[in-house]
Specification:
The complex is a heterodimer of chains A (about 725) and B (about 375). With about 725 residues, chain A is of the alpha+beta class. Chain A has three domains: about 190 residues, Penicillin-binding protein 2a (Domain 2), CATH 3.90.1310; about 325 residues, DD-peptidase/beta-lactamase superfamily (Beta-lactamase); about 100 residues, no CATH class. Chain A is built from 27 helices and 25 strands. In chain A, strands 2, 3, 4, 5 and 10 form a five-stranded mixed β-sheet that branches. In chain A, strands 12-11-21-20-19 form a five-stranded antiparallel β-sheet, sandwiched between helices. A four-stranded antiparallel β-sheet of chain A has the order 24-23-22-25. Helices cover about 70% and strands about 5% of the residues of chain B. The chains are: A alpha+beta (about 725), B mainly alpha (about 375). Chains A and B meet through helix 1 and helix 2 of A and helix 3, helix 4, helix 5, helix 7 and helix 10 of B.
């Protein structure tokens, strides 16, 4: 090895080394200046960015309030479900992941892209809902791809569980994701994209109460979106549970009665306007809306000629047919023209040069027969005598042509024609002959089933008309109660002054209808059931009585129990149901269900006892355990007590002032062994040593022999 | 000659400062790798440092003149090892930089740095400080350029770039005339611009990486991501920092490789401007101390050796810290004495060993 020897003589010039030192100094100053600029001058804005980096706002979703029927039975519940969201604030281009996401979550890729496109202008921190109610498989997919797809986020939420088969669907309504149009509407300012909002029925009307208040929390994440911690958790306030006025049993009877027929049933308490049942057929499954409804399913619902989404009970405006004759009778009686009017029905009659048909030859009859027999000729004559404006005056007073103000969205007002109405809408004069067909509830007059039942039961209640409602206002805050009234304007409660003979005649007529009249087939033994049938011809329809055909008349029946001051009224509408007598039979089923339930409740002593707990006096002997008395046999005592309905002695009536340590009711002394078994033997140290003021070891109803139970829970009424 | 040698002449203050920096480094690596898969890297770093100190002492014992005398052999061996890497090296992330020997991985390009320092010192010392001819200059460029090209082919742009300050320091201290320097600079500029705009030398993604530091917000999720996260980390540290193990950028894994290339960002986030400034000050004092050693060196070759070390360290500090605070592109150059990494630690300590070597022999000639 020949080393290449290095030169050892020269020295480096010091000047150059000094220059290098200054160069390094300048470099250090530049770096320090850079640090100063970032950390001292710009610290706050960078700190904010650092926070945004790691904090992700996640909503804590509030459970929606449950819906209960009037007896507190659950109608609408929630169930836990998981939704998938896409978070965009990650440092990655999501577009490349979309095919994998679509595959894993069983989504349509194009639809997913469209969803993202819709949210392109939303702020970056806002998660995009991409699939609701994901399956366990899809959840597993998200978990397994935490690293590849950190942008996927799941949120636990409570989802609506509605009754099956569209039970009470129109009444309850449904919820759905808030739409873009709604978000642009100031009325929905509360909502953010992805929120669930009530779309129909009670869900919509009472949305503000049901929705509760979402909470939120900051989830601290790392750069992969993995959660490392939480802070600032604001819990959600669950929505208010609402008790509806609906009676599940009546609703069920109404649903069953209507069966497959198209139409509506409304049952109401005419005394206070509580809706006990509200059915509209065909129905739909609100559960399909709870998860976002598919396009095909939606268009099927919208284009169905039977209008499943329409709440026919409050939105279907149809000719009332013969049910209108009750209103005609009221108008005629109030005007004093009908009382002594007798008309000879010869299968019809001529008015204004036209022959108007009746379906039978009724002969000579007065109003008392004309109502139950539903004689058209008689009411043609009444209409001729009264004229349209007098009819309209009374019909309008009774609520025809104006909304009832029920607390459900999109109620229709119906139509009550008059000269003024025709001039306003058609700019034409009213021809007197047009009033004739109005006399039997045909022509331009149109009502909703709810209007009709309210009007007729109002007449039976001596002119007391009520505002129907499906939610008991007692559970609402006063300001919200007022808000509901304001947002559903209608006639509300109203007293229409009726003469007593008007009231008597109309109600007797309806009672006769279900005994000897058109609805005799729906007669109910032992129930004071009154009502009026209606067979309303449809536009373009003739006398073709083919049930269900497009030209077949609509069948109506309005019934109530009892005939005067009814506590229960029901309307049945069968679209193209042919004869009103058929509807009467359906109404009778609903009435029967209601009456049977009522009677069962009245005969149930235990139920009554709960309402009126009243102490009952009874005697008792007891023994004090030997361990306490020292075994001298002085531990036996006796006395009389007042026992509450839950078998708890409330007061000693007589006996030693030193209260019993253990007291057994007299009635059960022979079952002492049994009591010991239940309560524990007196010698058993497990027996709670309680003072005399709380001798709750006394036998409860459970250990009382059967025959004494009634005594204990007694009271009664 | 040997009797003059004593560890009393060892640069103890320098070693103290270096070890202080190493301590800071170990703590920061501990903090930055907490709860990650690199959790125990701070102990590994400790082993590397101990190994480095041993190597430093060994290196300081061999007379640097012997190193200079035999540098051609070592230089030749280095070129061979670089060729070998290209042929049989282990491929990591698309680049062949490592040679596997048993359980260890070696990155020859790191050692080449040291050899080039010795080579350049040898070359210019032998020119004796006379006015450089163009021939001298081109020979020097060739000496550094050949290994640099081999490293560029791996490809490892960052390490290749660290060779240039060795050449520049040699030329400057070796006596280049300012006119020659101006011409060289102009030619270099033209070549760089030409290479940039021709589009053949650098691929578009490489260009994007090199320019994204100017505007990291243009592509905050792509090429600008690292620099942006680094700026957020440093900036959010503020004056006093968030505290050890408290940096959200560091702990949340937003900061890329916070224990290696971006350790200064992690440190600045957790210890603020105060901590970062103190570390820079420490670097400054260390560099000044090194230059002082160059001034007191017994001969030109010793001074050149020390200044070569100074050049490499200064370059790495400037580029790394500059990158962290957004003044420089992301090039993957570690921060000496701070960043985790065996090759880097061992190189630095070997280089310091050379400096100690020169210092211990300052009165010997």
């Amino acid at each position: 090895m020949v080393p290449d020897r290095v030169n050892r003589d020269e020295k480096l010039p010091m000047l150059k080394l000094t220059l290098v030192q200054y160069g390094i100094l300048v470099m250090m100053l530049v770096l320090t200046a850079g640090l100063w600029r970032l950390q001292v001058l710009g610290g706050d804005s960078w700190r904010m960015l650092a926070e945004q980096n790691r904090i992700r706002k996640v909503p804590v979703l509030a459970a929606r309030g449950k819906l209960l029927d009037r007896d507190g039975r659950l109608l609408v519940d929630n169930y836990p479900s998981v939704s998938c969201f896409l978070v965009r604030e990650q440092n990655r281009n999501i577009d490349n992941d979309l095919p994998l996401i679509a595959k894993g979550l069983n989504l349509d890729l194009e639809q997913l892209r469209a969803t993202l496109h819709r949210y392109r202008l939303a702020p970056g921190y806002q998660p995009i809902p991409i699939k609701q109610d994901i399956s366990p498989d899809e959840q597993a997919f998200i978990e397994a791809h935490r690293n590849e797809l950190p942008e996927l986020e799941t949120i636990d939420e409570e989802r609506r569980l509605y009754p099956r088969d569209g039970f009470a669907a129109h009444l309850i309504g449904y919820v759905g994701e808030v739409s873009e149009e709604m978000l642009n509407n100031s009325a929905y300012a509360y909502y953010e994209p992805g929120d669930v909002v009530g779309m129909a029925g009670v869900e919509k009307t009472y949305d503000e109460l049901l929705r509760g208040q979402d909470g939120s929390m900051d989830v601290i994440v790392d750069s992969h979106g993995r959660e490392v911690g939480r802070r600032g958790i604001q819990l959600a306030t669950p929505g208010q549970d609402l008790k509806l006025t609906i009676d599940n049993d009546v609703q069920r009877a109404a649903e069953l009665a209507l069966g497959d027929a198209n139409g509506a049933v409304v049952a109401m308490d005419p005394r206070n306007g509580e809706i006990l049942a509200l059915v509209s057929h065909p129905s739909y499954d609100p559960n399909a809306f709870a998860v976002r409804i598919g396009r095909a399913e939606w268009s099927k619902l919208v284009t169905d000629p039977n209008h499943p989404l329409m709440n026919k009970a409050i939105q279907d405006q149809l000719a009332p047919g013969s049910t209108f004759k009750i209103i005609m009778s009221v108008a005629g009686l109030q005007e004093g023209v009908v009382q002594n009017m007798h008309v000879n029905c010869a299968g019809g009659g001529s008015f204004y040069g036209h022959f108007f048909k009746c379906d039978k030859h009724h002969g000579v009859l007065g109003v008392e027969q004309a109502i139950p027999l539903s004689c058209d000729t008689f009411f043609y004559a009444v209409a001729e005598r009264l004229g349209i404006d007098t009819i309209a005056k009374y019909a309008t007073q009774l609520g025809i042509g104006s909304k009832t103000g029920i607390d459900l969205p999109n109620e229709m007002a119906g139509i009550m024609p008059s000269t003024q109405w025709k001039m306003k809408n058609y700019h034409e004069k009213w021809y007197a002959g047009e009033a004739i067909s109005v006399g039997i509830g045909q022509g331009a007059v149109a009502v909703t089933p709810l209007q009709l039942v309210r009007a007729l039961s109002g007449i039976a209640s001596n002119g007391h008309l009520v505002r129907p409602h499906v939610v008991d206002p007692g559970q609402l805050k006063p300001e919200f109660r007022q808000a509901v009234l304001d947002s559903f304007p209608g006639m509300g409660d109203r007293q229409v002054a009726l003469n007593s003979d008007t009231w008597m005649t109309a109600t007797e007529g309806m009672a006769a209808a279900t005994t000897t009249g058109t609805a005799a087939a729906a007669h109910l033994d032992g129930i004071d059931f009154a009502g009026k049938t209606g067979t309303a011809q449809v536009v373009g329809g003739g006398d073709t009585h083919t049930k269900g055909g497009a030209r077949t008349p609509n069948a109506w029946f309005v019934g109530m129990v009892p005939r005067r001051n009814p506590e229960f009224a029901v309307v049945v509408l069968q679209e193209h149901g042919d004869w009103g007598a058929g509807s009467a039979k359906l109404a009778a089923q609903v009435v029967t269900a209601y009456v049977n339930k009522k009677r069962k409740q009245e005969n149930n002593l235990l139920l009554q006892a709960d309402k009126t707990p009243k102490p009952v006096e009874m005697g008792a002997v007891w023994s004090t355990p030997e361990s306490v008395t020292g075994g001298n046999g002085a531990g036996v005592g006796g006395g009389r007590f007042e026992v509450a309905s839950d078998s708890r002695p409330v007061r000693a009536v007589s006996g030693p002032a030193a209260g019993p340590r253990f007291a057994y009711p007299l009635a059960t002394i022979k079952d002492a062994a049994k009591i010991e078994k239940v309560m524990g033997h007196p010698k058993n140290p497990q027996v709670p040593e309680k003072g005399p003021e709380k001798p709750d070891v006394i036998a409860r109803a459970a250990v009382l022999p059967e025959r004494y139970r009634g005594v204990v829970s007694g009271g009664g009424r | 000659m040997r009797r003059y040698l004593s560890f009393r002449d060892f640069d103890w203050p320098l070693l103290g400062m270096v070890l202080l920096l190493c301590t800071v480094s170990v703590f920061e690596i501990y903090s930055a790798t907490l709860h990650t898969k690199y959790e125990h890297f701070h102990t590994k770093q400790l082993y590397w440092i101990c190994g480095g100190i041993v190597l430093m002492f060994v290196m300081s014992k061999v007379d640097y003149h012997r190193l200079l005398d035999f540098v051609w052999w070592v230089y030749g061996f280095c070129l061979l090892s670089l060729v070998a890497v290209k042929l049989v090296g282990t491929k990591v992330l698309g680049a062949r930089r490592w040679i596997k020997l048993g359980p260890m991985h070696f990155q020859p390009s790191e050692w080449v740095k040291l050899v080039l320092i010795v080579m350049v010192a040898h070359y210019f010392a032998n020119l004796g400080g006379r006015r450089l001819t163009w021939g001298d200059i081109f020979k020097a460029i060739g000496l550094v350029g050949i290994p640099m090209l081999l490293v560029l082919l791996q490809p490892d742009l960052g390490t290749a770039l660290t060779y240039t300050p060795i050449l520049l320091a040699g030329l400057f201290l070796g006596g280049i005339h300012w006119k020659q320097a101006a011409i060289l600079g102009a030619v270099g500029l033209v070549m760089v611009v030409g290479a940039w705009s021709s589009g053949k030398v650098l691929k578009p993604y490489q260009k994007a990486r090199l320019t994204s530091f100017l505007n990291p917000d243009n592509d905050p999720k792509g090429s600008g991501y690292q620099i942006r996260q680094s700026l957020i980390a440093v900036g959010s540290g503020g004056v006093w920092g968030k505290g050890a193990e408290q940096g959200s950028q560091t702990q949340g894994d937003f900061l890329p490789i916070p224990h290696a290339d971006f350790i200064f960002a992690a440190f600045s986030e957790e210890h603020g401007f105060t901590g970062a400034f103190l570390v820079l000050l420490l670097y400054f004092v260390i560099l000044m101390r090194l230059i002082q050693n160059a001034q007191t060196a017994a001969d030109m070759s010793g001074s050149l050796l020390v200044m070569g070390v100074v050049a490499v360290l200064t370059f790495q500090i400037a580029v790394n810290v500059g990158m962290v605070i957004g003044f420089m592109p992301v090039t993957g150059i570690p921060l000496p004495l701070m960043s985790y990494g065996g090759s880097s630690v061992l190189f630095t300590f070997l280089a310091l060993g050379v400096v100690m070597n020169v210092r211990m022999r300052r009165f010997v000639n």
